[in-house]
Structures are given as structure tokens and as C-alpha cells.
Design a protein that fits this description.
180 residues; Sortase, Chain: A; 3-stranded antiparallel beta sheet
């Protein structure tokens, strides 16, 4: 495992194992654009600042769902996961397509990853990167607990999609897809 993947794995493990969400019912409305996580590893956050050397994905398309979503680079800054109200987020410390595990996450709401659970094994997902289309096929969907961070980490060349799920977002939905 490369040092970069190890640091990402360790940072995410710390973030999730110390308590990924600290929301109560009232704060869900007020903080819908943020996910709070604790992490003591500043290296993960600093490494993401230099995303200019990577060509991140700029769009994700779900043909089965008849949906395309703009993707923007995001980082973990002082323990807060960068999220957008109208875009999916590519974790800038994850890989770019073709170079490892590409992690993309978004809110579980209409227009974003709200119907991600409708994807089935074999469904196509298309990433746009540098005006190129990279096609993936869904391999597996998995419902996990928020502290099961190891579920989104992988040294494999794959696409990992991640969103909240369940009543009051008490679970997470992970979709794994392999390049075609």
C-alpha cells in the first residue's frame, strides 16, 4: 500500500471511528451542507490543496437514472468534509480515474445522490475527465454504518460512490463500480 493511500486510510479511519456525525434533529436542517468529522491528521488536508497536478473528474452520469451531475474537487478542512448543495464532490486526496480508487460523494437528495440506491449490478456510470468519458459498471452496493470507513478505502482501480442513507442519515450507502 502506498504511503498516500495509507495516510488517506488512516485519516479516514480516524475521522469515522471517532464519530462521523454529530447531528441532532434540529441541526440537520441548519447543517445540511456540511458533514462533520474529527481527524487529527493534518497531512490529509494539506495534501489536497495541490489538486492542480491532477485532472479530476468534472461530471458523473447515471444513464439508468437519466441523471448527470457536475463534480467539483473537495477536501477535508479542519475536520469538515467539503460538500456542495448542487454538485457531487470528488475527494481530492483520492485517485483520479485510471489511477486507483476514485471517491465521489454527495448529499442524499434529489438532483444529487438521492436515488443512488436504485442502481443495480451491471448498471453503467460514466465519469467525464479532461473531456474523456470513462465508463464503469456497478459491481456492488452496500449499506454500512458511519464508522465502517474501511468500506470506502481500496487500493483497486475502481469508482466508489458514497452518500448518507437511512432514517435521519444513520447509515451510509456505498456503490462500487469497476472500469469497463
Amino acid at each position: 500500500m502506498s504511503n498516500k493511500v495509507f495516510r488517506l486510510s488512516l485519516s479516514l479511519l480516524l475521522a469515522f471511528s471517532t464519530g462521523f456525525l454529530f447531528w441532532n434533529y434540529k441541526s440537520i436542517k441548519n447543517r445540511a451542507s456540511q458533514i462533520f468529522a474529527h481527524t487529527s491528521n493534518v497531512a490529509l488536508q494539506q495534501e489536497a490543496v495541490n489538486v492542480d497536478t491532477k485532472l479530476p473528474p468534472t461530471q458523473i452520469t447515471f444513464p439508468k437514472l437519466n441523471k448527470s451531475i457536475v463534480v467539483s474537487a473537495s477536501i477535508i478542512d479542519n475536520g469538515v468534509w467539503g460538500l456542495s448543495d448542487d454538485k457531487a464532490s470528488w475527494l481530492a486526496t483520492s485517485a483520479v480515474p485510471g489511477e486507483g480508487n476514485v471517491i465521489i460523494y454527495a448529499h442524499n437528495r434529489p438532483g444529487l445522490f438521492g436515488n443512488l440506491g436504485a442502481l443495480q449490478i451491471g448498471d453503467e456510470i460514466i465519469l467525464t475527465q479532461n473531456n474523456k468519458l470513462i465508463t464503469y459498471k456497478v459491481r456492488e452496493t452496500l449499506a454500512i454504518k458511519p464508522n465502517q470507513v474501511e468500506a470506502i478505502l481500496s487500493p483497486n482501480n475502481q469508482l466508489t460512490l458514497y452518500t448518507c442513507d437511512g432514517t435521519f442519515d444513520q447509515k451510509r450507502l456505498v456503490v462500487y463500480a469497476d472500469p469497463v
